[in-house]
Amino acid sequence: MNKKKWLGHLFLIILSLIMVYPILWWIGAAFKTNDELNSVNIFPSSPTLTNFIDGWTAIAGFSFTHFYINTFALILGVLFTTLISCSLVAFAFARLDFPLRNFWFAIVLVTLMLPSQVTLVPQYDLFNAFGWINTYLPFIVPHSLAGGIGGTFFIFLLVQFIRGIPRELDEAAKMDGCSWFGIYFRIILPLMKPPLVTVGIYCFLWNWDDFLGHLIYINSVDKYTVGLALKMFVDSNSAVPWGQLFAMSLVSIIPAIIIFFFAQRHLVEGVATTGLKG
Amino acid sequence: METTNESAINNASVEQKLPFKKFRVKRKKWETPYAGYLFLSPWLIGLFLLTLYPMIQSVYFSFTDYSLLEAPNWVGLENYKTIFLEDKLFYKSLTITIIFVVIAVPLKLIFALLIAMVLNQRIKGLSIYRTMIYLPSLIGTSVAVAILWTNIFGKDGLINGVLALFGLTGMNWIGSPDTALGTIIVLVVWQFGSSMVIFLAGLKQISAELYEASAIDGASKVKQFFNITLPMLSPVILFNLVLQTIQGFQIFTQAFVITKGGPIQSTYMFTLYLYEKAFAGFEMGYASALAWILLIIIGVFTAIIFISSKYWVFYQEGGK
Questions:
Q1: Which CATH code for domain B78-311?
Q2: CA distance to partner chain A, nearest, from residue B119 (Å)
């Protein structure tokens, strides 16, 4: 190995350490006692779990178990509806032949970049009129209509993938008398597993972090998601209990980290091929 | 290269035929008109009900004094007049957001590009470095990280702790109006990993032959960067720039959790103002007008980037 390569490695190691140092320090801090919290050191001198135990029940009335169940319920609903609706719509764009198809696809591309602030107020007004405030319907219904957070991105991503599946497969099925739904369900859908995993991951991550949406539509503590609970935790104490707060916020990113390490390939490739935000 | 040339020829011949094709464009029949619309229906309903209708309504609201509690009254251009002529907070939040975007987005992209180039050198352990550098992007917009940041840049936080090791005395970075915006910019730039991954994919597309040929001609690394890498990568740079600019204008969570717009409104982002008008003051009409102004500003910035791209984005001949 030559000198230049060594320098490259050295640079990358230092950079990587700087990048992840705040996260490592955060992990350490969650196990530290309060008098040690201000130390730069990553490792706690006497690791303790009290931050986790006390933090978990620090919000009066509800433990974090409750907020996690809420968040997972919300996200499961969103995930399930997204996978169905987006794959159906993508199948239409990629395989079916109907009037104005290219026009509608152009609309998909235009709405891809549309800032959500423009529809924020009227959507709130609409859901308010439906009596959906303080329920999870303002999240689940848009996703079941192939919208919501990232919906158009997902359509686009799936269309690109289906276009790569050989058409001979559908034609053979058509000859055998398979309906269009049959082709979607029996042929395309099973082949779409890899991009559907990517869609599922991003749908999960983005909805987990959809703080503004949760903030606007959910207003009673018993329906709070983890993000809202954390924000309330910060606001409700005049002297912020940092140790507990670190522990609880650390737990809240564990799902993202687990997904990341299990599906890294999908994530990174998803970003690289479609330019999804990370 | 051969295939691209071929497709260029095909493209040219198609374009030549186009005037005649126009007359033949009427098709006899669509293969699956009903199935097509059936499969498309979820998205179509969503488009009309949750995008187009709200957009039209948002235009209408912006000309009213709608407050959610009372029916909207038409006030004409009153909201816009107030915003442009009297609303100091509008100008303040807009200025802060533009400063944020203009600093954070280029910084983020420069980091992303430089590190992508380092990683592109067939280095061992690439995936480990990539993982570590991408990690902040994964969790960066969460409330959890915003909370972490509040502490790290606080008076007794990690940054000051590190400074103390070098004998420097830190300050309350988040509590001071001069540095609060800087901490948010650092947070956003820290998440350059996703842009970097896109750059990395773009760099892999550049043919090694180009570098080999120029090396034979005696081009230096710096020359190669400016004459090969940058031009070949410019479409990807354009893509990242547009994406990050649009996202940058919409920053909310970080400012809301870390600084709540303070101190003395030094981090009062436009979306924060919009949020407070709409959901704290329930001035829905006024907030709708603000939202449209934001959309137009984002549109103008995107348009400027696209127009300027004519001068700096290089498309390979025969490419799409």
A1: 1.10.3720.10
A2: 8
Taking an 8 Å cut-off on Cβ atoms, the answer to whether B118 and A111 are in contact is no
- Tell me which chain A residues have a C-beta less than 8 angstroms from the C-beta of B55: 118-119, 122
**Mutation to test the B interface, candidates A4, A9, A19, most B Cβ within 10 Å:** A19
B36 contact partners, CB below 8 Å, separation of at least 6: A92, A96, A97, A98, A101, B30
What one-character-per-residue DSSP string does B82-100 give? IIIII-HHHHHHHHHHHHH
Three-point CA angle B235, B241, B244, nearest 5°: 140
Nearest CA in chain A to B47: A147
A125–B57 C-beta distance less than 8 A = yes
SS3 content of chain B, % helix, strand, coil (to 5): 75, 0, 25
The one-letter code for the residue type at A119 is T
- Out of A205, A257, A275, closest to residue B198 by CB: A275
Q: A61: helix, coil or strand? A: coil
Structure confidence at residue B11 (pLDDT) = 47
Measured between its terminal Cα atoms, the distance across chain A in Å is 34
Task: Provide the 10 A C-beta neighbour count for residue A196.
Answer: 22
Q: B277: which 2 tokens?
A: 């008008």
pLDDT at B288: 94
What's the whole-model pTM score? 0.86
CA torsion B161-B164-B169-B174 (nearest 10°) is: -20
Nearest to B177 by CA among B268, B90, B276: B268
Closest CA to A121 of B57, B135, B2: B57
Q: How confident is the model at residue B32 (pLDDT cuts 50, 70, 90)?
A: confident
Which value does ipTM take for this structure?
0.85
Residue A125 near residue B57 (C-beta atoms within 8 A): yes
Q: Which domains does chain A have, with CATH numbers?
A: 3-48 (no CATH), 64-277 (1.10.3720.10)
